[in-house]
Design a protein that fits this description.
Layout: H1 5-8, E1 13-19, E2 22-27, H2 38-53, E3 59-64, E4 70-71, H3 75-83, H4 85-104, E5 109-113, E6 116-118, H5 119-127, E7 130-134, E8 138-139, H6 143-146, H7 154-162, H8 164-172, E9 177-178, H9 179-185, E10 190-192, H10 197-210, H11 213-223, H12 225-229, H13 231-244, H14 248-258
Parallel strand pairs: 2-3, 3-5, 4-6, 5-7, 6-8, 7-10
Antiparallel strand pairs: 1-2, 8-9
């Protein structure tokens, strides 16, 4: 596949076409478990605009190279968010765009989840139209452990996928789950053995790419109105997450991650 100019600007992804009309995006920083730095965070929000406009693409696969899908955002960016209004404003915009750009991308998206799936990578994985995980994948929304509200996608989609009771349990307690558990509660579409993941993902994407394109894209558009009508819920959760980066809890959460210890949050709270 000759990479189009619109994709050559991206540093975080490798692109290939494993089947006609199927574009595969591979997060390509395996030495960092595909954690997203400032560049990666921007790119994972923007790439869906180019995909939406690409007339040669009918379906998309999102995967990670190496041992993990994505280990989330890096702590250097988190540190900058606690210190800089400009950084918070930029990350807020990118986090907003990531969610809405995936929702509004006309092309069906299939995520291929293995290893750790955290942070902005998890956002894309769970907002994909069809999500396929290995049984041993480790899925966790780490926001409350860090000391900020679960805002970057959870409020808009988790209650729809797995119900409010499960969403609150996993999000408020920052409880990790396996891919097998994620399928059981409805958070992901399918769960397969590790050696079956690539083939199953390609099979599903190929079926989407060779199906009736208008019918499939309009079905996606209609179903995603459930997410669009939850937009104000998402906007509030993302704003509260950003507000948390000005508070004391995220400083303790970040320090505890860096020092590899359990956080000790001040229990006095008037909010």
């Amino acid at each position: 596949m000759t990479i189009k100019a619109c994709y050559q600007k991206y540093q975080m992804f490798d692109f290939d076409e494993p089947a006609p009309g199927v574009l595969r995006l591979t997060l390509n920083k395996p030495e960092r478990l595909n954690a997203l730095d400032a560049t990666g965070h921007r790119e994972i929000a923007e790439v869906w605009l180019d995909i939406d406009r690409d007339p040669d693409i009918s379906a998309v696969i999102l995967r990670g190279e190496g041992r993990s899908f994505s280990a989330g955002g890096d702590f250097e960016m988190v540190q900058q968010m606690t210190e800089s209004f400009e950084t918070k404003a930029r990350v807020w915009r990118e986090a907003r765009d990531l969610v809405y750009n995936i929702i509004n991308c006309s092309k069906p998206i299939v995520s291929s989840i293995h290893g750790a799936a955290v942070g902005a990578g998890l956002v894309a994985a769970l907002l994909a139209d069809i999500s396929i995980a290995t049984k041993t994948a480790k899925i966790v929304d780490g926001h409350t452990r860090l000391g900020v509200a679960a805002g970057d996608h959870a409020a808009i989609v988790w209650p729809l996928l797995c119900g409010m009771a499960k969403a609150k349990y996993y999000l408020m307690l920052c409880e990790p789950m396996t891919g097998q558990e994620a399928e059981r509660i409805g958070l992901v579409s399918l769960c397969v053995e590790a050696d079956e993941l690539e083939a199953k993902t390609l099979e599903v994407a190929t079926r989407l790419a060779t199906g009736a394109p208008t019918a499939i894209r309009w079905t996606k558009y209609a179903l995603n109105n459930w997410l669009r009508q939850a937009g104000p819920i998402f906007d509030a959760s993302l704003a509260l997450e950003m507000l948390g980066f000005d508070g004391p809890e995220v400083k303790e959460g970040l320090a505890s991650h860096l020092e590899k210890r359990k956080p000790q949050f001040d229990q006095k709270c008037d909010f």
